[in-house]
Input
Amino acid sequence: MSSPLVYLYVPGDRPERFGKATTSGTDAVVLDLEDAVPVAAKDSARIAVGTWLEKRDRAGVPTWVRVNPGAELLDDLTMAVRCGADGIWLPKCDDRATLDRVDRMLTDLEAAEGRPRTPVSPLIETGAGLVNAPAIASGPRVEFVQIGEVDLAADLGVSAVVGDELLWARSHVVAASAAARIRPPLAAASPVIDDPASFETETRQLTGLGFFGRACIHPRQIVSARSGLAPTAAEVDAALDVLAAFDAAGLGAATDSAGRLIDEAVARIARRTLARRF
Output
């Protein structure tokens, strides 16, 4: 697996959960300083996250930090860079200018702290962000884009997300990511914790729409996320068949064992299918 697929949120004011999260089976951890933390606990959460980041086993799973977009932004970024976070989740990102500003802040912080370049994943959570998705996806440091679906639904005035209410938004962000030539977007977190079959089905549907990976808010979602992300045995066999025929043809046009035409686009789909294996 070349890229993490499952990202597990952990509230930044619950340090007793940080270490447990890294051994939960997730591919990456997201220590959340934003929505999961009450206003009164922002400062103490930042200290707890920084303390843990400095002491963690860096050979373990990658750990990102979701920062606050407002007055706490600089303090959050300073802590994240100084303490060695593997990346930044940037909520409420409405435009390219926000990414440019964060890029300048991170560049200064990395130079001061002697840290490597920090990737960013912006969350699109408003109508403005959605309209500006192509510019956001092509912004500096952007590794992949996400949708904050509950916030976006509230801003758009659509009903609770139970079906296709956000279908256009999802497809728009997938297309924006493809146009920017970045990794496909990460499928959004869901409040569904105790219905694994529903969570797995939704994850598989989002994968079919072009998303790559899933954010989870509880360890109980991880197994269902993996099941929904993973290709079936038949899909794996078909992908291997496609790539074997394509390679045998010298990466030119070929046919698979069923006589179907294979070109580079078909091979790309097959590679992406295999990238979802665990």
The CA atoms of residues 13 and 45 lie 4 Å apart.
